[in-house]
Write a structure and sequence with these properties.
single chain, 9 helices, 11 strands
């Protein structure tokens, strides 16, 4: 496609669906990571220029795996080894190229006839294949696949304890589902949950086998804590997926604001 064709498509009208969460102090997050904090060290009126103008500024502190974020391949190791035996510099988030690819939403609750999945429920390979069939879509190599569980509704409703699921668990894929995704040759995956994968009741965030399969064994990026309800409401299952991490040198992740772009 030529640049002009792209410009013509934009001029013809596109719809952009924001898949990122607003960053707020106190938002639900994994206890494994430093919390988000925002403050104004300078407020309007603290310093007033001769012409009456004034400026405010901000400072933030946060872990790189807080809010909607992407996991770099350096985020997880297994038996002391990261993906391809490489190191933090080779696999840091600064090495992730901006992503502009075909995106696919797998709306599992819609397939199963429920509003959202249960706490600790595994999204099985059968669930994923049934969702592909129901939606009439296919996964191609290089795609970005987003899996909706409906669990993001707890984030929307301000129920942070349930969203974290430290005691109750969180729905998601496990080893089998992650392997199925990897076998399709996807570039990245994402979900509306705090850790992408299934968290068993009472297990906290201690065991993450899908992270091992995806990040360590197959070099597939993971995007977590996504907002997927708007895509599901309008049955948008295919779109242009756009995401660009902050080039934080040597970091294991980055906050992101992913977008789904479709025709208007």
């Amino acid at each position: 496609m030529t640049t002009q064709a792209l410009l013509d498509a934009v001029a013809g009208g596109v719809r952009v669906v924001d898949l990122g969460r607003r960053l707020t102090v106190g938002m639900p997050q994994s206890p494994n990571h430093p919390a988000y904090w925002h403050a104004h060290p300078r407020r309007h009126g603290d310093m007033v220029r001769a012409d009456g103008g004034s400026a405010a500024n901000d400072m933030i502190s946060m872990g790189t795996h807080v809010g909607t974020h992407i996991d770099a391949l350096s985020h997880v190791s297994q038996d002391g080894r990261m993906h391809d035996g490489l190191g933090m510099i080779e696999l840091g988030v600064h090495t992730i190229e901006p992503i502009v690819r075909r995106g696919v939403l797998l709306d599992v609750p819609a397939t199963l006839g429920v509003d959202r999945l249960e706490a600790g429920q595994e999204i099985t390979v059968a669930d994923l294949e049934a969702t592909l069939g129901k939606q009439g879509v296919a996964i191609n190599a290089g795609d970005v696949v987003l899996i909706r569980s409906g669990w993001g509704q707890h984030f929307d409703n301000g129920d942070g304890d349930t969203f974290r699921g430290l005691q109750t668990g969180v729905p998601g894929v496990s080893t089998a589902g992650a392997t199925w995704l990897a076998d399709h040759g996807v570039h990245a995956v994402g979900a509306d949950t705090i850790a992408f994968e299934m968290l068993s009741p009472g297990a906290g965030h201690g065991l993450l086998p899908a992270h091992r399969v995806l990040l360590v064994e197959n070099g597939i990026y993971i995007v977590e804590t996504m907002a997927l309800e708007e895509l599901a409401k309008d049955a948008i299952h295919e779109f242009v997926f756009v995401l660009s991490p902050l080039p934080l040198f040597g970091a294991t992740g980055s906050p992101v604001r992913p977008l789904a772009v479709v025709g208007a």
